[in-house]
Amino acid sequence: MIVTTTTAVEGHPVKEYLGVVTGEVIVGANLFRDIFASITDLVGGRSGKYEQVLARARKEAIAEMKGEAEDLGGNAVVGVDIDYEVLGQNGSMLMVSVSGTAVRL
């Protein structure tokens, strides 16, 4: 399945628009990861654990969105938007949401 942020797929005209599809994943921040991320922030550098969690959450949200598109009979999702939100008390959770339009090319 083609997933793209563009509104069209070059060389593949849209035959049918099937509707908006979404995927959302909420992940909790682990206390130990928070402590190590704070240390990384103090001494500089990247927080590899947070990057891994974000990547996993993004992949899961996209997979969920693709599943919705397949259920509608689509073979592509166009106009995809990816958003990140901090949720929960003291920002203890992170939500990754994706949305796009399911189409049949």
From TrEMBL:
Gene3D superfamilies: Hypothetical protein apc22750. Chain B. InterPro entries: UPF0145_dom_sf (IPR035439), UPF0145_YbjQ-like (IPR002765). Belongs to the UPF0145 family. PANTHER family: UPF0145 PROTEIN YBJQ. This is UPF0145 protein GRI91_06590. It comes from Altericroceibacterium endophyticum.
